[in-house]
Specification:
- Helix content is about 30%, strand content about 15%.
- It is an alpha/beta fold.
- Helix 2 (about 75-90) crosses helix 5 (about 170-175).
Amino acid sequence: MIRFAALAALACALSSSAPAADDVLNVKVGDKFPTVPLAAAQIDKVKKDAKTVSIGDLKGKTVVIFFYPAALTKGCTVESCGFRDLMKDEAFPKDVVVLGASNDTVTKQQEFIDKEKLPMALLADTEQKLIKELGILSGKGPRAKRVTFVIDKEGKIAKIYDKVTPASHPKEVLEFVKTLR
């Protein structure tokens, strides 16, 4: 009986240390970031007179895309306002584009922008096309996981942050972006 209990405990420990299937991203550092055109609130901040924007439209720029579960919620507001404050202070290099993204509608994203005075465009992946392609769909409903991607000037993923603390994350991303050429 003791052997069975020990074996069961070992099996449990081994299974909990392996990543769950839904914790595995579909992309990795060095991969081309998917080119999925999306509508966005404040799209004119990144592309004039456009209905959609994709990473292909931003070639030649470093792009930070931070995904969050839902606009106007506590953690998402803390993270977004952190990026806002760094952008307001012009901390990011001039060739860096910062974008927020979730599966909220453009209308909801615009509400978020208006309420929090956010300076960046917010992508509206309402059909979760990009979210699913990246492998960041949350198991807790049709929402994006809190993941940030830094994309280099060639459109390749330079860094992935999949463990994000909303309050400190924007500064962490800024420090990495400053190391890129």
